[in-house]
Amino acid sequence: MGLTLTEKILSAHLVEGEMIKGSEIGIKIDQTLTQDATGTMAYLEFEAMGVPRVKTERSVAYIDHNTLQSGFENADDHRFIGSVCKKHGIYFSRPGNGICHQVHLERFGIPGKTLIGSDSHTPTGGGIGMIAIGAGGMDVAVAMGGGTYYITCPKVVKVNLTGKLQPWVAAKDVILEVLKRLSVKGGVGKVIEYCGEGVKTLSVPERATITNMGAELGATTSIFPSDETTHEFLKAQGREQDYTPLCADADAVYDEIVEIDLSSLEPLAACPHSPDNVKSIKELEGQKIDQVCIGSCTNSSLLDMLKVAHILKGKTVHPDVSLSIAPGSKQVLNMLANNGALAVMIDAGARILESACGPCIGMGQSPNSKGISLRTFNRNFEGRSGTKDGQIYLVSPETAAVSALTGVFTDPRSLGDAADITLPDTFTINDNMIVPPVAAEDMDSVEVLRGPNIKPFPVSEPLAETIDAKCSLKVGDNITTDHIMPAGAKILPLRSNIPKISEYCFAVCDEKFHDRALEMGKSIIIGGSNYGQGSSREHAALAPLYLGVKAVIVKSFARIHMANLINAGIVPMTFADETDYDRIDQLDELKIENVGKQISEGNIVKVTNATKGFDFDVKVDLSERQKEMLYAGGLLNYTKQNS
User: Fold this and answer.
1) Contact, 128 vs 233, CB < 8 A?
2) Strand-strand pairing, 589-592 and 467-474
3) Cα 65–67–72 angle (5° rounding)?
4) Residue partners of 624: CB distance under 8 A and separation at least 6
5) pLDDT, tens digit (0-9, with 9 covering 90-100), for 170-212
6) Spatial separation of the C-alpha atoms in residues 10 and 422, rounded to whole Å
7) Catalytic pick among 203, 324, 355, 535
8) Strand runs labelled E in 314-437
9) In this structure, how many other beta carbons lie within 10 angstroms of the beta carbon of residue 226?
10) In 3-state terms, what secondary structure has residue 430?
11) 257 three-class SS
12) Helices (H), 526-569
């Protein structure tokens, strides 16, 4: 029986466990990446481990999220990260060099390698044939120190692509179609592997768009084969030596198969407020819009930008629409400037933003009140744009550009014949904004520079014998990490200051949560299905830890957030009977006796609702290693005990 591509790469990197679906496996990590919203904390954690120099083949720190410097905080964090990089063997991508996933795809991604990043859209690297996984900052820190990275051995879903995209139908429409079919929960515990003759018709940037938004499926990662198209891309980037042909065996066996005929797809949009709330542009056509934002790690490649410039050439943005464009990297921006496409965008009335995440994380360009904003981004969660009642739609660059001209939702197929745009044989290569670390013999002379906003890591205690605490908050289904720990220009600068950023914890759901949780001293959170979906930000676990949250009981967890809770020493529990969710109210007193003993004896734990006088069962379905982490009080304590 043959192997899938996923199984081949995971098997080649297997350190612990067996390749049995659903069991825990440990894999060796070749590369890591961080970005500045998560990086400061990740490097504080790395320092706490006491490892002098990273042990990966390549680790890169990117500055791309907190680039709005309205106070000293972001600049101080960037300076701290830069100094840590010099000292500990990490490459430093300076502000302005571009979005981490776009730059990593261009300059560092290697087929067949493993990559974890402290950003949930790290699976972008799957577009080049990597096993690239989003993770919490603490997991990345451990990997940088040479530690093993643990995941549940995934099921593998084959998405069989046939046919070829019709004119003005885009890679974004492919992944929106997958989201429409599978939902934001459909990829949990799975890797999405793209196969079939249709793969050959997609460029590497198009493949990366698709794997990027695999994060919205809840998937562990997504991956394309490494083929001649991959070879040509790497060759054009001056990295031909990094190419390795990789594909699944012809007789590989998959857990599920999804068939997609590319030629049958049409332009789509994810409607507010979820990436799987998908409709066709035809259904929305003619509806007035207020704003268009083009960019993000999903759709900011040179190919995307050239298509946008082609649509805008000789035209003017509709007077009722604000259009902003953020090229994904310095390389893309340089090439647009040199070939005249940038001038086309400016002539049309586009507002050119720096090569950074920007509006995608609420860092500027918030829409007007109740404004309808078309964005080429990956998430449209309520309030993420910075405008509470903003109506955010996720679309392709082609749909975004033509709609910016008309002022209404417009099907790009109305443009007629497709633009004849291809990737260049050679990209402009200038890595002068990537600072290499100092030589090992010089590292002792490097001073790590810390600003006053950098506060100590919150203290985690070993698991108590009994958890007796009130429910400080009850929330519903699909709670995102943006609900738990919002982003945006006001909050992101506080990412290295857990006491301060915790003031905003769950503010989207309940503005009184912070004060109530602090007053309680210790508490338990109750939630619905898919709790913690979205960003990998470990602050969504660290802020509750600081506020005394001891356990979270929900119907189901998103993968990364559950791992982050365990890393922080917070017990993740799921209802054995989901109807018990309805029997619990906020402020109910919940008691769990002999917690550690119950967890060690099996995966069912009894909880008593002391307020209402009934018992209910929860599942704590963890590996032995994860249990030991909880007993110790989290990953850092566990690592110190076992080092």
Assistant:
1) yes
2) antiparallel
3) 120
4) none
5) 999 999 999 999 999 999 999 999 999 999 999 999 999 999 9
6) 33
7) 535
8) 322-325, 351-352, 372-375, 391-394, 434-435
9) 25
10) coil
11) strand
12) 539-546, 559-568
Whether residue 64 lies in the annotated active site: yes
Contact at 8 Å (CB) between 410 and 402? yes
Joined tokens for residue 237: 């980037």
Longest dimension (CA), the chain: 72
Q: Where are the beta strands (DSSP E) in 376-439?
A: 391-394, 434-435
| Nearest CA-CA partner of 83 in 434, 432, 438, 439 | 438
Q: How far apart are CA 342 and CA 334, in angstroms?
A: 9
384 counts as catalytic? no
Look at the block and give the residue holding tokens 């998959």: 254
Based on its alpha-carbon atoms, the radius of gyration of the chain, rounded to whole angstroms, reads 24
How far apart (Å, rounded) are the C-alpha atoms in residues 618 and 508? 27
Name residue, tokens 């007007």: 368
Alpha helix stretches (DSSP H) within 267-423? 281-284, 302-312, 330-339, 341-348, 397-406
Tokens describing residue 112: 């067949």
Q: Which of 24-28, 312-316, 361-365, 468-472 has the lowest mean pLDDT?
A: 361-365
Q: Helix H segments across 573-634?
A: 595-601, 624-632
Say whether 379 is catalytic: yes
Is the CB of residue 377 less than 8 Å from the CB of residue 259?
Answer: no
DSSP state, 104? Answer: H
pTM above 0.85, yes or no: yes
**Which position among 36, 76, 119, 242 bears the catalytic label?**
119
State the DSSP H helix or E strand holding residue 406, giving kind and residue range, or none if neither: helix 397-406
Note if 444 is an active site residue. no
Could you say which of 13, 30, 58, 65 is catalytic? Answer: 65
